[in-house]
Every structure is written in structure tokens, then in C-alpha cells.
Amino acid sequence: MTSTFDDLLEANKTYAQTHEGGFDGIAQAGVLMVTCMDSRIDPLAMIGLKPGDAKILRNPGGRVTDQVLVAIVLGVSLLKVERVLVVEHTRCAMASSTEADVKAKIGDKSGTDASWMTIGVIEDQESTVRADVNRVRSHPLVPASVEVGGFIYDVDSGLMQPVD
Predict the structure, then answer these.
(1) Nearest to 133 by CA among 47, 40, 39, 68
(2) Is 92 a known ligand-binding residue?
(3) pTM beyond cutoff 0.70
(4) Strand 31-36's sheet: what is its strand order?
């Protein structure tokens, strides 16, 4: 029987032939990055790290949601995370439309009303990054010793710019 995942499973077999397992799950570089799910972003490579060095949390827009906060707390408490990067990016679909427009597109594509769903579009990226950084810094289970920074990654140049 042919599966719609056969190409990916075959690629996984090739990957597994040279895979060096044995990581302990600790963020070896003490880094955790929250970023967007956009496929133009290669989180480890863009900051010079390799598998095992960092925890990577991805979602639409790279937002610090309640579940992301849980992951950050686990990272700083149990996985040796000492630095947290909140990274949004240029030309992000979450920052280029209104909430109503995105819901309408989803509804049109699915044939089901999506007006009840919270999408979380980003109206002002710099303000959103600042708010999300503050959300991490002010969390009672994230020690003040944890460095938290906000950035906007340019998908065209590959450069990250700090957001003050």
C-alpha cells in the first residue's frame, strides 16, 4: 500500500543512517527561541547553533502564548535555559492581514465559518515583540537571571535586529 508519507519516511531512513543520537534533552547552549512556523526560518542556523544546543518553540507569528510560557518555565527550570529569544520576522502572514480577513480566508478555504476562532494577527510587530518579551520577563517562574531579548528577523537579508 502506498502512503502519502512514503517520500518523507524514505527521507527519514536516509537521515537515520547518519543521525547522531544520544542528546540528553538539555539546551547545551542555554538558549530557547520562540519564533514563527514560517519555513523560511532556520532557527538554529540563523544563530550559529546545532541540534541539541537550543529549545525551539514555533507557532504562527512567533507569539508568547500561555503554552509557550509553560515551555519557557520548563526550559529555565529543568533544561538549563539561560537566554530566551523572541523572534518575529519580516513579511509574516500573521502581520500582513487583519483578524477578520484571515478568518474569512480560512472560512472560504474550509467551507466552515471561522469567525469564532482567535487567530492572533499582529498589528505592530515591534510592540508585539516588546509585549511578549515583557510577558516572559515578568512571569513569576522565570528568574530575573534569565536574559530575554526581542528581535525581528529579516527573511531577505538573514539578519536579526534587536527590538528595544
Answers:
(1) 68
(2) yes
(3) yes
(4) 54-59, 31-36, 83-89, 147-153, 160-163
36 marked as part of a ligand binding site: yes
144-159 burial, b for 16+ CB within 10 Å, e for fewer?
eebebbbbbbeeeeee
According to the annotation, is 38 in a ligand binding site? yes
Confirm whether residue 6 is marked as ligand binding: no
Buried b (16+ CB within 10 A) or exposed e, 119-130: bebbeebeebbe
The helix (H) or strand (E) run that includes residue 114 is none
Domains along the chain with CATH numbers: 19-94+124-162 (3.40.1050.10)
In the 8-state DSSP scheme, what is residue 62?
Answer: -
pLDDT tens digits along 100-157: 999 999 999 999 999 999 999 999 999 999 999 999 999 999 999 999 999 999 999 9
